[in-house]
Amino acid sequence: QVQLLESGGGLVQAGGSLRLSCAGSGRTFDSYGMGWFRQTPGKEREFVAVIHWSGHSTAYADSVKGRFIISRDNAKNTVYLQMNSLKPEDTAVYYCAATVFSGVRVKVGEYAYWGQGTQVTVSS
Hints:
There is one protein chain. By secondary structure, the chain is mainly β. The protein is built from no helices and eleven strands. It has strands at 4-7, 10-13, 18-24, 33-39, 46-51, 58-60, 68-73, 78-83, 92-99, 113-114, 118-123.
């Protein structure tokens, strides 16, 4: 089992950058694939980015490709989401999540463990 805690959210102007962090507890953090998802009121939670447990494979939603970068430091039990060229439509609560399934997973239901979320607001 793993517990996750996000940080790094906040208010930023369009075109700016933020880096989200997700700290995981437990000795087996490096056995989990890690994903970032986001959600706005009245909408379903959507996939943003995912990184394989090894860090060697990543995938991104089309809406963030080329602007966001996911990375991980297994020695620190932490996964990051570097968000550049932010747009107002990136405003959401961002969640990190852990999956025990192999491969690159993009569906909410494939993730068993979730953080509490961190708010990102991008002003125009």
